Amino acid sequence: MGRVALKSIIFFEVVTTIGLILGAVAINLTQAGAGVTLPASIQAALPTTRPEGWQQILLNIFPENIAKAVTENQILQVASSRCFLVRRWPPCRKRNAPLWSPFCNR
């Protein structure tokens, strides 16, 4: 990995961490959304939900159809399907294999 790539990754990590910390501090100080309640008519229209078991959570990780997962914006399912499709990724070919080997499952 080159110097620019390493500096870019470090910069991204540092700036992202600072942004997350600033956001968490701002929300904790301002208490945004505290005391807001939904009107009774909207609360009655909300469907009742029950907690999912670990089996259902595990089944929701893998999509039944990748195109459906993309259109429904199911990011976890899209990311998990990437693990199965990564072998066909061009950087995983032999010429670039040493750099990308942790991601190529070879």
Please describe what this structure looks like:
It is built from 6 helices and no strands. The protein is an all-alpha fold and 106 residues long. The protein has 2 domains: 1-30; 53-106, no CATH class. The radius of gyration is 21 Å and the shape is flat. The mean pLDDT is 81.
Write the layout of secondary structure elements.
Blueprint: H1 3-30, H2 40-45, H3 54-61, H4 66-71, H5 75-85, H6 97-104
Q: In percent terms, what proportion of residues is strand?
A: under 5%
Major sheet characteristics: none
Contiguous runs where pLDDT drops below 50 for at least 5 residues = none
Ends distance: 20 Å
Number of strands: 0
Average pLDDT number:
81
Which percent range fits the helix content?
55-70%
Counting helices, strands and paired strands, the structural category is mainly alpha
What is the gist of this entry?
The protein has 106 residues and is mainly alpha-helical. The chain has two domains: 1-30; 53-106, no CATH class.
Quick tags:
mainly alpha; 6 helices; 0% strand; single chain; 106 residues; 2 domains
